[in-house]
Every structure is written in structure tokens, then in C-alpha cells.
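A common beginner's mistake is to predict each chain separately and then try to dock the pieces by hand. The better habit, illustrated here, is to supply every component at once so that their relative placement is modeled jointly.
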Amino acid sequence: MRKTKKYCYGFCVFTSIIINILFTINLYFGGGGGGGGGGCGLSWSEKAAAEAEAVAAISCSGHGRAYLDGSVDSDGRPVCECYACHVGIDCSQLSPGCAADADSGDPIFLEPFWMQHPTNSAILVSGWHRMSYGYNDKSYMSVELENYIRKLHSIVGNAITEDRYIVFGIGSSQLLNAAVYALSSETSSSPSNVVASIPFYPMYRTQTVFFNSKNFQFQGDTKAWQLNNSTNMDVVEFVTSPNNPDGELKKSVLGGKTIYDHAYFWPHFTPVPAPSDQDLMLFTLSKLTGHAGSRFGWAVIKDKDVYEKMLAYIKVADLGISKDTQLRVLKLLKVVVEDEGKTFFKFAYNKMKDRWDALTSVFSKSTRFSIQHRHPLQCTFFNETRLASPAYAWVKCEREEEDDCKAVLEAANIIGRAGSMFSDKDRHVRLSLIKSQDDFDLLLQRLTELVSLENGSIQTM
Amino acid sequence: MRKTKKYCYGFCVFTSIIINILFTINLYFGGGGGGGGGGCGLSWSEKAAAEAEAVAAISCSGHGRAYLDGSVDSDGRPVCECYACHVGIDCSQLSPGCAADADSGDPIFLEPFWMQHPTNSAILVSGWHRMSYGYNDKSYMSVELENYIRKLHSIVGNAITEDRYIVFGIGSSQLLNAAVYALSSETSSSPSNVVASIPFYPMYRTQTVFFNSKNFQFQGDTKAWQLNNSTNMDVVEFVTSPNNPDGELKKSVLGGKTIYDHAYFWPHFTPVPAPSDQDLMLFTLSKLTGHAGSRFGWAVIKDKDVYEKMLAYIKVADLGISKDTQLRVLKLLKVVVEDEGKTFFKFAYNKMKDRWDALTSVFSKSTRFSIQHRHPLQCTFFNETRLASPAYAWVKCEREEEDDCKAVLEAANIIGRAGSMFSDKDRHVRLSLIKSQDDFDLLLQRLTELVSLENGSIQTM
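With all components supplied together, the output reads:
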């Protein structure tokens, strides 16, 4: 099945290459550009379209990619940028001994979906597109895009957006701090205390410490805070659900002012038992469609005052969000909601399920390492009971003496993110499962080798 | 001459409309999309290209524009979004009594340039373009784009970039605060003092107050600060050159840590006497090419430590800048540097010069209102002595009793920005000269009427 798909895809790419070589020859050597078009009724847009197809047709052996804005050769023509562990002009050579890098949350696992749906996901941006600071209604946010975000949540059933406000941000990254700002005390004399439950995404701490505001300060773990402080202090609690790193669906511990980081609350990572109906929920394109590079996120907000404060934050920080990006996000979401989201989320879920099936098979043979337990839950979107397929494996080194699990994996040429990065013990390490297929395949190979050595010496590798 | 151009342009648009109507019929009703293309060798990109041309071909009488992500009719087809003061399906009707809005610095005066150069300024973004957080070198910034920025400064001769670091930001807006952060004290006990010379751009104060950091605080006017404080205190000085609102080329007063905001330091706004060689210089695409909506700016930095702090700020704030935007900016700058920048900057300068010629002609007949004096200076880019043609007119109400100049203009149906917004007296008001031709024409008409009434009653309007 997968092979047939590959050949199909290969054939398309091959046909596309032939067509494009012919066209590119015309473009580069025939003067190209403007004019009356080459017979398909296009005029000024044809050159940009041809450039994009030409660069897409450059073969990098499936282990790299050429880009319109990427590296060029001495003649100014785009060349392959090879993925990790691959080298050579067409990226076909494997670097021997290259580490399996499972550190970052770069969501490249969805790239194949977009390559298989090129027609409806492409945009052509004219030189004069949306030059103004604002849209026609003077806002910094596209009404059309906001409508599609609401439609998406309604189709997926993961968040209530009726009678809620929406604010766009530069990824959910920017919205994290905008939300802390909006929920915090306005008096410098008693700053709000920001907490999160261990293990938690390090950005909550990093941002709060970095911006060093008089209005809020980071206080670490929610439970430790609860034990040591009176209940009437001003607190803002981060709840990440599903959690990064371990994929758990979480709830607020303190029940007060809470920021729900729902970056991973999509059917490919977790069964969606019911729509979230929290006061302040954050989402990001990055973990939905895989477009981390576009830097786009949104907040769904109940309270008008909080909404206005977050809006003010985005305005003061950078006078709004790139309109080029908003145009692209709109196009991508139109593809996602096609067929009521079934095509997209099925692809994304199957990708994650395949990876988890392979991963659990390897870890089931190990007593030295364990991964998080995954609970079966009813998913209203797929209308069946499923296991979660989180973005990350949260690996534990079970041997008493192996309390630096990152180092243990590193000795086997596997790069993960240490538990201490998530304010947890280093006996845990996070492995990213959402990178490219190449990255995942190499990770799986290295893990298989590592586990197969368990009956031998632990120093073998 | 201008008429011939208009007819030429009209003819092109007309031809384009015919071609596109035919193609659009095929696209919307013939199934469109994918497949083997319509005879020009394009495949997957053709639909996006056709959509962009179809929306560009919608006539809005020159007083509005239809957008790919804009308002749609009940059948989902894009409709005209009319500019201020115009209404109707094709924006052809003028709203009677509509105010001449010269408030914002929306740089739409350059839109016609991009409409006249559609072929080389368009980009087609594939669905899988740059999905990763980083570029191939793991950075958040496109090396190609950085190269073009350096090339641009070298051609224009407005800034030294050799042996300097460059950091991209979300407009220069974000870089203002990133720069304050980078230059500020690291100890909360003695925050740095941020100052600027009156009249100054309000964002300096707004951001510094809004983020309420322990590391820096806004202290207002540079000269007042200098009089009242000892010289050994930690200060960060904003210098805007040319200045917003009055267009003056300015220098640091205190001579210490300085942020040079060079947003307007381009040949269309000022003669460029020599390349700026300051420690920290900020530029923005908005006032260079007119693409405010893309939110892109850059800093040119001498000191490595300051560079690294600004880089860290962008990373912590939002994990980098949209890659879609970076691709677009690269394409736009490639057009700007064509012909050593002559075509672009000539267009932009002539536009501003025409507006200033018309404006000074009106104000020369007035004793009630004056505008700033403009000094002739040698411009190394155009290689001749020229007057500045600033982005804003800094209007003064000369009559003793008219100390609220914004209100005086408002009574004449002209909207400006009050002097107090720039921490100056309200006897001054800023009028934006960089909005659309429609906006400028209406402004000129209202000013002409106002000035012509000077010999009559001042309450006439």
C-alpha cells in the first residue's frame, strides 16, 4: 500500500520534472517573465509560478529540498539543502555515524501531506498584496481567517468558540506571554505568580524570567506552590493539555486564573473526548498543520477585558501579525477543513499511529527503558475509542544507576531533550516523534540496536 | 506623460481582465486545479496563479481593491474593499463630506510601483515551503535575505554593514524594545533610563511603559533629562533620523548608548549625505518598500554582545520571524536593487517630491499655518543637492489663540495626529503624506479650501 503510494508519487514527481525542465529552459534561457503568458491565460503571475515549480522539481533524493529562498550555486540557481545525516549534491549520501536527532519539536511529519496536496495549498502573493498595517476594518486580523478558525474548531470538536473572542499571535509563543500579561496583576507592588505542573514546557519559565516584568514572576511547580503558599495570593497557572513532554490530558490544579495551552489538542495526537470550554485557550498552527516556520497561533478567550489586553499586547509588541502569513494560513486551513477534516486528520493520525506502533514494539522488548502509558479514550472526531499518539515519547531509564537518561541515549548516538529541561528528573528524556520520516527511521534504528543490546554489556555502545 | 502611463496601464489591466475572465470561467466552472496545466507547462501552481490574477483583475475603479483573503459575496467570490471615502460595489461613489484622514503612517504611496512591476515582485508559496522552525543552518533568518539587505545598503549608501551583525524583527516595532532590552542594565536594582528628544515617535514611550520591565524605565525628553540628572547614570537614548514627526536629521544628544531609528533614512524621504555608521541602527520594510502589512524590520549592530541579546529577545518572544514573510521580502528587495536601485528610488522620490511641491504651494499662501523648514543637502545616492521630502508634514497653527491645531484642522474635516502624541505642544499637528493618492488628493483639496478661507472668518468651515 505504502509502496504503491510511493510509486504514484514518484511518477507524479517525474512527470512534473519533465514538464518543468521544458518550462524552466524556456524561463531561464528564453527571457521569461511578464508578457502575455505561455498559452494558459496567465500573465504576470506565470513567472513566479514557474519558479516555484522549477525549484520544487529539483531532485534531492527525498533527503533534502531546494527552496526559492535557499542556497544557490555560482550561477544563482537553487541547490539542494540536505536534511540531517545526508550529504552530496542530491543529498543521496548518508553521513556515517550521524546521530539520530530527536531533540526539537519541528513538525516535519506533515510535509508529505502538503506535497501530496500541492494545488489547493499554494498561494500566489502579488507585490501589492495587503501593504497596509490593517485590514479594511482597521483590525490587524483577517476576518476570513478568523471565520475558518472557528469553523475548524467546530468540525474537530476540540474547542468552544461561540461567543468567544479570538486573538492572533506570532506562534503560540508570543501568546504565552501575552496571556500572562493579560491575566496578571496591574500593580507592581504585588506581582502575579506564574506556575506550571512538572514536567512542563520550558518556555513558560524562560519567557517570564526573560521579560523580567514588575507585574509577574515565575514560581515553578504548581503543587509545590500550593503546599507552601496561602490560597489568596494572585496566581496564573499554565496547564498544557495534552502535556508537553508526556502527552497527558491535564486539568488545572488550583482552579483559578489558568492559561490552557492546547498546542497538541488535535486528533492526530490525542483522542478528543469533548470540546474544551476554558476561559483562555491557546492553539498553534505549528502542531496542527506542521507549519512551524510561519509563526502563527491564536487564543480563544471568554472575557472581554482579557481579550482587549491581549490585543493591546500584540499591537504594542509588533503592530500585528504578518498579512502574508495570514493569507497562507487561510489557504492551509481551507485544505484542512475540506471533507470535514477527514482527509487531513486521517493522514496525520495514521502517521503518528504508525510511529507509535513501531516505537512501542521496540520498547516492549526492553526492561532498561520504558515509555509513558497511553490511555484509551473515546475520540468524538473519529467516533471511536483510541490510544493517544503523542508528539513525544517520554522515556524513562529504569536502571537505578542510569539517572542521566539523556547521556545514556547519547552514548547510543541518540539525541533527546533532558528531563531537567522540563523541570523534572534527568532519569527522563523526551524524544520527538514529529520530525521527518528520515529522522524517525534513524531514531527507530538506533533504539532497536540499543534495546537489542540489553542482554549484553551496557557499555557496548 | 502621466496620462499616457495611465492609459497604458489601463490597457494592460483591460487585457488582463479579458484573459482572466476566460481563465476564471474555466477555473471556477471547469473544475480547475491540478492536472497537467492549461498549456503553459505549469501544473500544481496554475490554480493559485489564476486565482491571484482573477482577484487582481476585479475592477474597483481605482478606489478599492479585492483580495484573495478579503470580503466575499454570497457565492464566495472576492468583492471590492473600498478605500476610505469611497463606496459602492465597484467603489466608484464618493462619500459626501468624508474626512481627509492624514493620521496614520500607512505607506500606500508605493502601491502603484508594485502594481506596475507585477511579474518580478510576485511569489508563489507552495504548501510545503519552509515548514521548519529554522533554516538549514538552524538560524531563524534567511542568509539570502541578509545578503540582499547588505547589498541594498551598499547600493543606497545609507548604512555601513561591513563587519556588522544583522537581526530581523517583526517590523522595526519589535526591534525597538529588543534594542532597549539589549542595551539596558542587567540588574533590576538600577534600571536603565530610556529617553528621546521631543518631538518623538510615541511607540518608544508606549512600549517601555507597557512592558513594565525591572531593567528599564521611560524618562521622557533627552534634554530635560540632561539638565536634571548626573552624567554617570545609565541611559539609553532613542534618536530618530530622519525624525518622526518632523523629518529632521538628528544626532545623539548624550553621546552614550544610542538606538538610531533609521526607518525614514531612504532617498525618497531625505537626501542621504553619507552612510550611517552608528552602533545600533534600525530599519523597516514598511517605510522602504511600503509593505507595512508584512511586519519586517532589521537591526544593524556593531557589538557582538548586543547582537546576541537582540537575537535572544526575538527567539524568546516568538521563536523567529515568519518564513513566508522572509521569502516575500527577499523577492521585493530583488526588485528594489534592480538597476542599482535607480528605478525604485526614482519612483518613490518623485512621488514624495510631487506631494511636497503641491503641499508647499498651498502652505505658501497661508499665514495661519506653517510647515517645517526643509534644508537642501547633498544626496550621494542621486548625486545632487536636494530638499528633503519627509513622510509627514509637521504643521504649526500660527495664530495665538489656536493652540489646539488638531481641532482646528478637524473643524475643516482634516484628521491629523496631535503634537501631544509626540510629547510636543498641540500647536503642532502631524499630517501623513505617504497614504494613497486618493487620501493625499482629498487632503490637498481640504487644505486648499482651508487656506483659501483665511481672509474670511476662521469659523467658516
